[in-house]
Input
Amino acid sequence: MNTDLQTPPQSNSNAEPLRQSRFGNIGDGFFYWTTLLFAASVLVVTVLIGFQLTQASMPALKEFGWRFLTNSTWDPVRQVYGAWPYIFGTLASSFLALLMAVPVALGTAIFLVELCPYWLRGILSFMVELLAAVPSVVYGLWGIFVLIPILQPVQAKIASSGLSAIPFFSGAPTGYSMMAGALVLSIMILPIITAVSRDVLSNVPAAQREAAFGLGATHWEAVKGPILRSARSGIMGAIILGLARAMGETMAITMVIGNGKNASWSLLAPANSLASILANQFAEASGLQMPSLMYIALVLFGVAILVNAAARLLLWNMARGTNHA
Amino acid sequence: MNALFHKISRAGFALGTTVMLIAGCTKSQPSLTAAGATFPYPVYAQWFEAYRRQTGIQINYQPMGSGAGVEQLRRRTTDFGASDVAVSDDAMQSMSKKILQIPAVAGAVVIAYQLPGLQKPLQLDGSVLAGIFLGRIKRWNDVRIAAINPGVDLPDIAISPVRRSDGSGTTGIFTSYLSDISPQWKKQVGVGKSVNWPVGVGAKGNAGVAGVIKQSPGAVGYIELAYAEHNKLQFAALRNSTGNFVLPSVEATTAAAAGAVQRLQKDIRAPIVNAPGKSSYPIAAFTYLLVYENSENAQKANSLKTFLEWAMLEGQGMTRDLYYAPLPPQVVELNQELIRKIH
Output
């Protein structure tokens, strides 16, 4: 008990005393190696997934090579497969969902932490967490029975108005579309972004907040300046979590996105996603279709890693920027 | 406290006896395992239950999909399989032993649509349907639709084709019908459980397609008869090979099977789309039970044989309420010849 308190602060920057205490008794050694094993298993599982997917998709990898990524045909009859519409659909729907969810989530988080009266805070937080607990198939059903009947007349109006000249709004409106998919996704990723941002914001040192107010800052100025600045890498992390969930989401999106076959810029047209085609065609796949689906899974795995890595890089850059500022 | 203890011990005793009874049953009676198609599952479930009550023979069926049914049989993890698509000669090569394919019941694929204000069923034919699903016919008041619907006031709204997004025997039946009629379809798209659709919204499962059609004015899609009936969807009368427009029904499906009997005598796997006969509905198909001709286990072969014989006679009477078509007598005879070969 007391040793903890007596540990001089500089020992954190120096690893030697820590290591000594780690092997100082058997229990700590055991603890160290078990936790290391658990941590390593994450890495091992990731590598194994990549290996397994590569192996299972070998026939398709050999047949189509890199062209698989740019080819837009998915034809089980002629055994020609390409993943472009699905890659495009996954990226487009996820980023559209972020575009809609992030402002709302951030606004909610700021309100909860900075402005919300105390009695409302608990209720609102609870509601946000409730959204996170809803199973994705329920969001899918909500999309089919609530969202799409609302979207259909709206889309029909857009299609019959002059807006249809813009590529984003071209094509016949069906309700089941990229727009519906992105909307459902945005609601699904809202709670995680809100909850994590809220925690990050409430961890901003009170001193910063008080200093800003002390200098005569308004609420808006305090949030815009010091509070968001010191929270921004955490908020970025929240957004990455949201993006990861959006890209991997399967059930809800396949129910509303229309499972189209083209990569289209139109929000009204049916679209598709990597996860969606996997879920749809896995059960009855035959011949080269199965390795091609495995290839799709590999692509999804790769896209997820790439996006996460890119976001991580962004985060590092940001952190460096904050330190310099 | 004492009363509670008594209650618990009594419940425990009851549970114990039940377990023993169940265990006893399964031990003394032979049981069969099977897996495969989901489409005929409702009728199979009724068959197996009725058959168990009559004979005590238990049949465990996993509705995993046609592809999985064939695969499980190939690996011999099941006693028999079920598939909506007949197993081709190529696929048969991979089986360790000869399998028999026995049509179990027939089903119809219905062209359902959502057109507000239309009273009578729409009349459609194969070339119009191919045009719609190729994306060539785009509006409901197209002259090609109007030509076969004289006197019908067709609405000027866009056609929104709906199709399956998952691999499915239903898609196989529908595309084989379109390929049979439209050379263009055959060339551009072809036949398969999932195909490269030129247009349309994709939905998962019959229920998914039925749901999209129900919601979207102007939508048209293909679903099993039972789903169209249960969802109270409007459906079209289709022109058959004799030129008659026939509404889908259990009777018209059985008629199609009877009309195709000459093809079936040559090969029991022959498709029954566009079958001859005045009252034949053109998009009909069998679903098949797959069994090994020689199953190594005489007792199991015997149970299987008696079950199949039962299914051909008594079983056929139970299909109608579930919107599956019973086999016509000619096909039952062909099946009985096959069943006799099992040993």
